[in-house]
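Database export, one record per block. Field names are fixed; values are copied verbatim from the stored entry.
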Amino acid sequence: MGAVCCRTTPVDFDGDVNLFHFVLLRCVGKGAFGKVRMVQHKQTRELYALKYINKGKCVKMKAVANIIQERRLLEEIDHPFVVNLRYAFQDDENCFFVLDLMLGGDLRFHLERLGSLPEEAVRFYVAQISSALAFLHENRIMHRDLKPDNILLDEHGHAHLTDFNIAVHYSERRLLTGVAGSMAYMAPEILTKRGYTYTIDWWSLGVCAYELLFGRRPFRGKTNSDLTHSISKDTLRFPEDADQKCGRAGMQLLRGLLERDSLKRLACKTGEQFEELQRHPWFQPIDWQALENKELQPPFTPDVRTCVCLTSVKLVVLANISFSQSKKANFDASHELEELLLEDNPLKAKVRKANRDVNTLSAEMRQMEEQFTSYDFKNMQRRSYYPQNQQIVSSITATSSMGGLVASRPVTPAASDQRLEGVVAPAHDLYENDGHIRMESTRLSEKSYS
């Protein structure tokens, strides 16, 4: 008598998206609130990155408002150089973001292995990220945590901006004062608490460009106070061998981005902004339209060798992804090992509890239950939660899970759009992660936008 094969419950792809829609592959990253896995959609076979956040940890770290804010901001964003949101959903234990999968690793990974990057490569990446920043600023969003760790390459070598955990809407009529971000990349107006707006992102881009070119940051200090003093007061200096790594136009651009007066900072002058940066001599080789269409050849193409083996148990993806100079994988294998050996409650798809009464939940849990709403990019229109911009921002007409272009068009505002009301980001304790200080004390309530 033959063995009886276990039957699995059919997946309802016409219903709300949930974890049963995906095959769980390797664990590729870990953050303060959760982890990141590579997943494959069972119906479309597309690969994605699944970022999942434990609700209990989120409540414990007083980060509920940040997670909801990130979820809502990501729904507004649709750009070729951003890691775009494709699906969002939750179960009883976790909140899930399904994002474009970037197989080429982050720029921190490559910078640590190469020491510094060639000028033509840095120019290419800075141009792509500046395009993403301009898009965000047009939609009144500032990122606030731009650094090499948050710039990911796709399998073709195009750069994408990620991690919107402390991104926020802004209004030019009222400056923000909360200290937020990674200290080494913070603009001086944040640290001096004079109030700031979107111009801080261009400063951070200047710090990133300097670090990628020369393998070191422009402002440094052994203590937080020393670093604050350096960012606020020290003269911008270049390494002795700077002319061997960067031309005069490049150093001129760095001086423009690292201008302490935000009104004089490159790409921050009223009426010019991104166009001023596009006209800069350093970007003379860049065809901006071709760049945004992803028609330009990236300076490096990650060496992606993917072997997909379908077995009766699971789908296994083995990848060797690297710059041409290296044969090391772009993901830290320790994340997968930790998941296999140390995780008490490994991730798996679970049916939600029936007849859940949200009124029995804590205020924070109820807030996540009600405000971390489901999203499916194939069936839903992207909309803005910005109180002064209540509208649907795009209708998806073409899709790509690998960082390709996504066509969109403006549509009529919907009466059913929800407002971001009463969401407050509480102050987090100062903590350090690989030398990067992150603090958060900004209110994200509707009052911040007026």
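Remark 1: DSSP finds 13 helices and 17 strands in the chain.
Remark 2: The CA atoms of residues 87 and 376 lie 5 Å apart.
End of record.
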